[in-house]
Amino acid sequence: MRSVRDAEVKGKRVLMRVDFNVPTDKDNNIIDDTKIREALPTIEYLLKKGGRLILMSHLGRPKGAPEEKYSLKKVAARLSHLIHRPVAMAPAAIGDEVKCLVDKMHNGDVLLLENVRFYPGEEKNDAEFSKALAELGDLFVNDAFGSAHRAHSSTTGVAYYLPAYAGLLMEKEVKMLRQVLEEGQQPRMAIMGGAKIADKLGLIDNLTDKMDVIAIGGGMANTFLKAQGFEVGRSLAEDDLLEEARRLVKKAEEKGVALLLPEDVVIASEISSQAIIKTVNVGEIPADMMILDIGPRTVERFREAIMEARTIIWNGPLGVYEYEPFSHGTREVARAVASSSALSVIGGGDSAAAVHDLGVEKGITHISTGGGASLEFLEGRELPGVAVCEAKATA
């Protein structure tokens, strides 16, 4: 990729896509500024080099029109606090008033554009909207890995009009994921969780070509268990994908990949924090019960594989992690990965949340900021926001 380090930015208007899609509470206050902090290395680098920094991001899911709760004003205030300098807030993302603000900028100034998803052209990757954004800058820096799988105006469209470079976070994300997939030391292990196999078919398929061990938990494991003839009671299972699950099991066998499925599970009749739980073998699940976590014997089996692994990628919780009775498997696996000496990458989402909740993030080599983007990258799919930093698009 063309790195921001390769760009001459002094005195230039740097149009930079960041991922400031931060979580907020019911009163619209930011409750976790991790995504803002992850962008700081690139922001501070560009300011140190004398760039005039114009930031653009989305927040939430507005329907192509302004909504106050999705305004980036609160983000501008938080960013200003973090970088210890003023961050001007634009009233819009494009238009004459915004151009006027940009024209008045000096080297080292920071301007945050209003939510790009207030415009229907953003998600449509509309050429006119892309061009209007591009007119604000002299070069484009994409540091929003979390949105790199979206071919939107602010992630890819502007690269048709401006030279495009990868920010430091984008570089780090791509480097770490590529290292796990292509260069990691053996044995290489993937830990896959989450609710549905349908969401990760391509991922499991691709990882079967690259991993030595694949451990599967969460709701998606139920489909594999059912495909092998086990009764799963009222558990979530995708009957239309049973044959696909059998195909993946067979492929793993043919490739010599150790496919680890639950041996014992935690079951209950309801999903709640007050649920009465029981641990049983996978062949002993009553018809009126649900599988909601991996059991202790499975945790130990996964832990043994983790301790032997030299490279680990993990994506997705191994139970209904949001409820304490079913969080044990995910928590214990998080502790095991953090205590291992392997190169470890967490693919964002709930598995990253588990690591943060336990305070063991220092034991992880890299925690991705892009849940959906990291999934698609690990599937082997081209990410539009990465591609524009690799080869110059032409107008």
What report would you give on this structure?
This protein folds into 2 domains: 4-170, Phosphoglycerate kinase, N-terminal domain (Rossmann fold, 3-Layer(aba) Sandwich); 184-379, Phosphoglycerate kinase, N-terminal domain (Rossmann fold, 3-Layer(aba) Sandwich), CATH 3.40.50.1260. It is elongated, with a radius of gyration of 23 Å. The longest helix has 16 residues, at 168-183. 36% of the residues lie in helices and 15% in strands. The strands form 3 sheets. The chain has a 6-stranded parallel beta sheet with strand order 3-4-2-1-5-6. Strands 9-8-7-13-14-15 form a 6-stranded parallel beta sheet, with helices on both faces. The protein is built from 14 helices and 15 strands. The protein has helices at 34-48, 73-83, 96-103, 120-123, 127-134, 168-183, 201-208, 219-227, 242-255, 296-308, 328-339, 349-358, 371-379, 384-387; strands at 13-17, 52-56, 88-89, 110-112, 139-142, 164-166, 188-192, 213-216, 258-260, 264-268, 278-281, 290-294, 311-315, 343-346, 366-367. By secondary structure, it is of the alpha/beta class. The mean pLDDT is 93. The chain starts with 12 loop residues before the first strand and ends in an 8-residue tail after the last helix. α11 (328-339) packs across α12 (349-358).
